[in-house]
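Run log, item B.
One chain of 138 residues. Sequence copied directly from the ordering sheet:
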Amino acid sequence: MAKTFDKHSISAELSRKMIDAAIAKAEELKIAVVVAVIDEAGHLKGFCRMDNAALISVEVAQGKAYTSLFGLPSHELFNVLKGNPGIVAALPNMGRILPVGGGLPVRVDGAMVGAIGVSGGSVEQDIACAQAGVDLAK
């Protein structure tokens, strides 16, 4: 019986590069966003709040990232859960879960290593910025 196991986690270097890519996309779209990168356990690994980004977006970006630790984009979670009224009713009590577009899981070599969340633009813009970050992990 094994007493330990190896697990993979997003590196600080990849986190920084993902944030830079997401910010570059936001600048291209002419929006101010917050970008949060978390590790596989949900702990903040990297963060940036662009100048003029809304303060509320700080919590929203982190919630979107945390929600993506389920292994799917944050906007897809509600569709997966909506057939179970008990879980849907419980969502407001699950503090960090935010099934709104802008959070994406991060996989490296097939292993889930963390997630990225972006908030500050429209849902479509947030997803595009998050995707710009995730594209670096491939």
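Observations after the first pass:
- The first strand starts at residue 34 and ends at 39.
- Residues 12-29 form the longest helix (18 residues).
Flagged for discussion on Thursday.
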